Amino acid sequence: MSARKLALRCLEDISGINNSVVHNQARRLSTRRRRASPEQLTFSRQSIGPSRKATGSHEWLNEASIQGLGVGVKIKGGVETSDTAFRVYVDKKKPLDQVANPAPASVRSAGGQEVITDVVEIGQLRPQEPFKDRLRPLAPGCGVSHVKVDGGTLACVVRSRQPGAERYILSNSHVLANSGLGSRGDVILQPCVRDGGKRKADKIASLHDFVAFDYARDGFPNEVDAALALIDPVVIGYTNAIRAIGLTPSGTSTRLRAGMRVQIVGRSSGHSWGTVEDTNFMAIVPYPDPANLGREIRVAFRKQVLCSRYSDHGDSGALVLSSQGKAVGLHFAGSDSNSVFNRIDLVLDAFDVELDI
Amino acid sequence: MPDRKTAQAAIEQNASIFRDNERIVGLSVKGTGDDARIAVHVDSDNPENDPAVGSIPTTVPVQRGKRTESVDVEVILQGSAFRSE
Question: Which of these, A143, A189, A211, B16, could form a disulfide with A267 (CB 3.0-4.6 Å)?
């Protein structure tokens, strides 16, 4: 059996994928324990550090610092070796004398073959909680929606290029304008409807404008899925510092190329990265059909940007940023494998607005 | 052989062919230099036996001035349709 297969077998045994083996192994071990030295039990001692009792059980798995188990090459002094190791992922590596139940230096398969372990620091794993909370002041990345829409993401706050004190939140038409079925003045909520937003308590803005879809069955006539909602600054405070990363966009950029990394902070995915695959993509996306309520119609877009998947349902409207923090797009659609965004210059030009920075 | 601009023009000139096919969820231009071609992104559970996918032409014509050129069409399985998120 190859070293990798052996390590994977150990992983299955210890993680309980192969329960019968673990059970049998535990039984055999408990028998052995009475007559064998600790070194002969499941886990051998590491050559350094204080003595660690081999227990024959997996008590060390209860150590709070352990984040996961896996198989990979052994890394020694920051350099990959040629050895395959049973990996123990921890939030932070500590000196052995500060760990109550340190991971063993090696583990054995049910067949008794030994595999070295490698403790790898990866930080603390946390469930990726979507941003579904009520957020004041408003900030890019929070959940937002029209009263008749499930939810989406607030891109950023914008202002007219003409003189004026009004400030608007930018997102998709299908988030703020019910895909063009909404009317000027409609209530916009934060948190969004899906996250429990209520008309009276959570109104943050009113629908101001949206780009109507062209449903023509020929060509690719649409460029953006975008809408603006007017914020009442007397009632609602706002910032353009994007939540989770704290970054305020440093401007906009139209420089897009295949291979460049882009990032969003979305209501569902939080902070997420993708890679541009095509800068002149034509997308066909289904939307509610205004002429046949309850049915969908295919809406065709040109000049879109296709990326590797960085998003999930509820991220629509998220501002897409370059790795340097410049706004490059407005996220609006995705498939199981890809995400698509509108170019930021087309979005801002459609309303004659600019980022409020 | 067509360049990327020619392939882009071919998409626009043949838009109705692509728009009418319900399996097509996106279009882009692939390749560089004289090797540009149209990439048709399709969503189909069974692309090899799907008549709609089968009906996608392998080449499309494009008018460049007085000349008519031909641009290759490559089918890419998208895996699922795009949806507004």
Answer: A143
